[in-house]
């Protein structure tokens, strides 16, 4: 399965490194994404003041077979990624309706792209490792990844997995040092670059432990993982005034892993989950719609 960032993210990120002609093509497309999805090669070349072969080369640089393939993919992204266009406003959303629209579009886009880019074999491989683990240490740093790591502990211990989480860089290194071949680190990182996570992965691997990393594929953490669950990074610089979208992708992949693990462990954990339900009922009475602490 091919894992690349979205066309729009990639154009934004790579434009400064392109030659003058290709940069002009990228800037022309980004200035009117909706129009670019319907324009001809000749018209785009005219608007960007480049040759038609330059437009074709640009499309291939973006990982497409040609400009027609490029437009199809661009149109698909536009359908699920209107958030990019809304973000071009000079002022952030400042009303309840605008904020709700922005956050909704960001959430839909993140989930759609996470689903489009997910690797089912990687999810299954990660669950194979987690299912056999003696202990699972869930790591993350920063506002998004640290919270997702804590949620991973919340999801896993209910499935009778000895799971714990921490965002403390010292504890991460110490926990990694206590690992053995039957232990696993489950690490969440959008960038795959935080030093404490890299050090922890290296230490754990040196002790024979497994490292399941939910992270951006071409990153240092991805290189250290024994199982990589790829997560495409978003260009978040224009969204500084709202929660980042990467956390939705992380939660999607965590839920995929936890759901599959739960299905595999149902015979083992069903009675324990029933006892958990009974405990909650004894605490405050029956509430039919309440999940078991999920």
From TrEMBL:
The SIS domain extends over: 126-268
Q: Which residues form the HTH rpiR-type domain?
A: 5-81
Q: Which InterPro entries match?
A: Homeodomain-like_sf (IPR009057), HTH_RpiR (IPR000281), RpiR-like (IPR047640), RpiR-like_SIS (IPR035472), SIS_dom (IPR001347), SIS_dom_sf (IPR046348), WH-like_DNA-bd_sf (IPR036388)
**Keyword vocabulary terms for this entry:** DNA-binding, Transcription, Transcription regulation
- Key word Transcription regulation present in the record? yes
Instruction: Give the highest taxon in the source lineage.
Output: Bacteria
KW Protease (keyword) present:
no
> Which residue ranges does UniProt annotate as crossing the membrane?
none
- What's this protein's name? MurR/RpiR family transcriptional regulator
Q: Which organism is it from?
A: Bosea vestrisii
């Amino acid at each position: 399965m091919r894992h690349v960032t979205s066309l729009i993210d990639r154009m934004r990120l790579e434009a400064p490194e392109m030659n003058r002609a290709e940069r002009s093509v990228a800037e022309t497309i980004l200035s009117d994404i909706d129009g670019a999805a319907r324009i001809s090669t000749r018209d785009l070349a005219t608007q960007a003041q480049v040759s038609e072969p330059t437009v074709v080369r640009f499309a291939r640089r973006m990982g497409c077979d040609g400009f027609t393939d490029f437009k199809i993919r661009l149109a698909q992204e536009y359908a699920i990624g209107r958030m990019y266009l809304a973000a071009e406003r000079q002022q952030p959303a400042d009303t309840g309706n605008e904020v709700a629209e922005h956050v909704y579009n960001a959430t839909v886009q993140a989930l759609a792209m996470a689903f489009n880019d997910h690797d089912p074999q990687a999810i299954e491989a990660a669950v194979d490792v987690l299912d056999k683990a003696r202990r699972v240490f869930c790591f993350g740093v920063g506002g998004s990844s640290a919270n997702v790591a804590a949620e991973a502990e919340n999801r896993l211990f209910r499935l009778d997995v000895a799971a714990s989480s921490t965002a403390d860089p010292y504890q991460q290194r110490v926990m990694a040092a206590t690992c053995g071949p039957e232990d696993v680190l489950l690490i969440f990182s959008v960038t795959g670059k935080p030093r404490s996570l890299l050090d922890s992965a290296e230490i754990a691997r040196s002790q024979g432990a497994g490292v399941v990393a939910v992270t951006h594929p071409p990153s240092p953490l991805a290189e250290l993982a024994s199982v990589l669950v790829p997560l495409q990074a978003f260009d978040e610089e224009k969204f500084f005034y709202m929660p980042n979208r990467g956390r939705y992708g992380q939660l999607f992949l965590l839920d995929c892993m936890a759901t599959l693990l739960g299905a595999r462990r149902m015979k083992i954990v069903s009675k324990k989950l029933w006892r958990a339900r009974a405990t909650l009922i004894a605490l405050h009475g029956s509430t039919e719609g309440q999940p078991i602490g999920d």
